[in-house]
Design goal:
By secondary structure, this protein is an all-beta fold. Helices cover about 0% and strands about 50% of the residues. The chain has one helix spanning about 130-135, and strands at about 1-5, 10-15, 45-55, 60-70, 95-105, 115-120, 125-130, 135-140, 140-150, 150-160, 165-170, 175, 180-185. Strands 6, 7, 10, 11 and 12 form a five-stranded antiparallel beta sheet that branches. Strands 2-1-3-4 form a four-stranded antiparallel beta sheet, with no helix packed on it. Strand 10 (about 150-160) and strand 11 form a beta hairpin. Mean pLDDT is about 75; it is low at about 85-90.
C-alpha cells in the first residue's frame, strides 16, 4: 500500500493500480494517489511524505520532500522510487555516507563507463550496489549511502567494469561510520 502525508496528516492512499507483468510494464508497480488539500495550503511549500508499506517484508519505507501545493494540479513521479530495503531493518539499523573520488593511475588502463557498478562489502556481505554513472556528481566523484549493523564497520569496495567485463576488489579496508561521510580516493 502507498500513502501520502501532507505536513504529517494522511491525505490519500492506494493499492497498486498496475502490477508487475500487466501491459508489458516489466517489474514496475504503479500507484495512483489523489491528494486532498486545504485552501490555505495552495501555493505554499508543503512537506510531503510518501510512505510505502510492504506486506511481504512487514516494513514501512518513507520518501520526503517539499513542494508547492496547487489545487487541480496533476503530478507525475516519472522516476523509480528506490526503496532502501534494508533501511530501518533490525539487521541494518544504521547507515553511513560514502564519497568516492576516482583517480587515474599512471599505469592504470581502466576507465569509468556507463553501466559500471560499485559495491560496498563488509566481509563477504554486500551492503549496497550502485550504478556509477547514475550517482556521479562530477566526472570523477560518486556519493551514496551504505548500510551498517553497528556504528563502525570495516568495509571494502568492489568495482564491476561493464566495458571490460571484470570485477576489481580493492584490498584496502576503510571504516564506514554511521551518520557521517567517509571520503575515499580510489586509484584505477
Amino acid at each position: 500500500m502507498m500513502a501520502i502525508f501532507v505536513n504529517g496528516e494522511l491525505r490519500g492512499f492506494a493499492n497498486p493500480a498496475i502490477t508487475p507483468g500487466e501491459d508489458r510494464l516489466g517489474d514496475k508497480v504503479y500507484f495512483i494517489l489523489k491528494v486532498y488539500g486545504n485552501e490555505n495550503e495552495v501555493s505554499s511549500f508543503t512537506n510531503f511524505d510518501l510512505k510505502y508499506y510492504s506486506c511481504n517484508l512487514r516494513q514501512l519505507f518513507n520518501c520526503s520532500w517539499q513542494y508547492p501545493f496547487e489545487a487541480e494540479k496533476v503530478y507525475g513521479v516519472d522516476y523509480d522510487l528506490n526503496v532502501f530495503l534494508m533501511d530501518g531493518s533490525t539487521k541494518y539499523p544504521k547507515a553511513g555516507n560514502l564519497c568516492v573520488k576516482f583517480k587515474s593511475s599512471e599505469n592504470g588502463d581502466l576507465q569509468l563507463h556507463e553501466g559500471d557498478k560499485l559495491a560496498v562489502f563488509v566481509g563477504d556481505e554486500c551492503r549496497r550496489v550502485i550504478t556509477v554513472d547514475d550517482e556521479m556528481e562530477d566526472d570523477e566523484e560518486v556519493s551514496f549511502k551504505a548500510f551498517l549493523s553497528k556504528d563502525e564497520e570495516l568495509a571494502t569496495l568492489r568495482y564491476y567494469s561493464f566495458w571490460d567485463d571484470v570485477v576489481l576488489t580493492f584490498k584496502e579496508t576503510f571504516k564506514l561510520k554511521s551518520n557521517s561521510v567517509t571520503n575515499l580516493d580510489v586509484h584505477l
